[in-house]
Every structure is written in C-alpha cells, then in structure tokens.
Design brief:
single chain, alpha+beta, Aminoglycoside 3'-phosphotransferase, Chain: A, domain 2, globular, disordered N terminus
Amino acid sequence: MTSTPLPAPATQPVSWTTTQRQFAFEQWLAPLIAVHGLLPRTLRAASSDASFRRYLRLDKEAGGCFIIMDAPPPLEDVRPFVSRANEMQRAGLLGPRVLAQDEEQGFLLLNDLGQCLLLDQLQRHSSQNLYKDNLSLMRSAIDTLVAWQIGMASDAWPAYDETLFRRELALFPQWCVQKEHGVTWTSDEQSQWDSACDLLVQSALAQPTVAVHRDFMPRNLMVTPQGLAVLDFQDAVRGPITYDIASLIRDAFFSWDEEQEIDIAVRYWEAARKARLPVDPDFGEFWQRLEWMGLQRHLKVLGIFCRLKHRDGKPKYSEDLPRFFAYAHKAADRYNSLRPLARLLEPLMGTSRVEAFY
C-alpha cells in the first residue's frame, strides 16, 4: 500500500516543520504568482497522507484552485510522480497535470481535480441499494483500470519482483505480529509463515505483468465531469495483472459482499479479455490468483498500518486492521495449502472482529 490521502478541513492552517522549509516554499512560489494568477493568502491544507507528502490548495484570481504538493526530500522524491503524470497525459488518461516543479526541493504545482473522490460517491447511497446504485461507478473504475493497463508503457518501470514481494510480506511479522500484538512465533509457526509466503510469491511471479498502480482503490480515483481521474500513482511498477483489481474490490476503507466482489471481478475479466490483456482464460483460475494476490497485499497493509501507528505516530489507520484481518483470513481459510496461515492469523484478530466483516 502506498500513501493514501486523508481529507483535511478547508480551514486548517498551513504549518511548516522548519522555517527553512517555509522560506524555500515562498521563494519557489514567488515567481509563479503572476504567471498563474495565484492568491497566496488563500493557501490552506487540502489533504495529508500516510507518507511525509502533503497537499495544499491555493485559489487563483480567475476562479478555481491549484494544488501544491509538498514532498520534503530526502523523505520523498517527486520525480516518479512527475514521470508517471506525464506518461498518463500522453496515454490520454485523466490525472493531475504538473504545471510547475522543483524536483530538488520537492514542490509541485498541479491542476485541481476537485474534491469528489469515488469513495465518497460510493458511500452516499443506502446499504439497501448500495451495489445497484454504485454499479455504474464501478463500471467506470473497471474501464479506467483497463485503460491504465493498456495505455501505460511500463516496460522500463521498476519490477514488482521477488525481493519487493518478500520485503512487503516481512512487514507483517515485524510490525503487526511483534510490535502491535507482542507475539513471538515458535519455530513451527515461523516455518508455516515462510511456506505461505513462498506460495504467495510464486503465484504472483507466475502471472503476466502489466502496469500496476499499487493502490488502485476508490480513495485514489477522483470523480470529474470528464470521467474518473487517477491519483497517487507515484509508486507504480510493472507487476502481476491481478494486483490492481484485487485492490479495487477489497478496499482499505470500503467492503463489498463476496457476491458483489465476484461480479466486479467478472466484469473486469470480461473487459480485460476484450481488450486483449493477458488474463487467465479460465475465470476460476483468475479468481484464485486474484485472491492470493489480494492476500499478499492485505498482509502487507496490516504491517504498514501498524508501522504507521508505532513508528510514525499515525494511529488512525489501525482502525481498519479488523477489515484487513477479515480479508486475509477469509482468503487463507478457503485454500487447503494456506490454512496454516489462517490459523496463524486467528489469535491476532479475535472471533467477534472476524465475524463483523464476513
């Protein structure tokens, strides 16, 4: 999981970690004021996220707003974001346009795509009609994902390779098992974990590869008059074709019933086949690969959310640990070869919290 924006109140004042950072920002902004018709006094917080990056909003004289990314180096590197944003423009995909940049200092001026996230739209409808009312939005998300996978030329991107998969999986025992729950596995339990990791990594590496967003979920899709815009793409890699659809249907902040998950997956699978993307011709095989890919992701996210709490002082993300435990346990318990992993998860989650999300 990459950095996911958290909405900030429009009136939240802008504070700076150091006076040097504030001075650098003001020096960078000064020549842009006249060029873009900026109103510096309107500078305010737009959103923050799980990284050290944040977004500010700034009005312009002619009406409307700009977004400023503040990504302090060496903690953040804006160059991948700039590169992917430019690639998206060439591919005809909707996303933030970089209007001005200082890559050395980590400042970007972006167009403002609005404040209507797909997640907000999905949550507007009543639970009774949730899926029916949201189906057109999910179709748009599927179309956007297929367009991303077709349009983004990812051959030169970093590979989602075995080293990266295993590094992500290692976050779970380090931060969730040991730090969050204070549990130390026995040698047998560690062996069960290692075996499960081997299976998940092998499954991921056996899949055809495409452009992978790595956080393709409703909170990173913006509803605009022109269609869905893609956000938070700076950590994109070339990797397994099921990764992003798994992210979409088993989201960090929004859950579907399994029947609805399968319906969305089928719709994606059919659209991908029509677009000649390399999905498995058998949907049953495709679904298993998707579930195993999602399981790898959910274990990683459990580790990341606990790390945010204990290392970075951001405990809010840990409120969604039960959701991810439920995702992970349900997938692991479904397959004989992964049931030992399900047994490892159970002492960490509690029966009542599991059932709450099933």
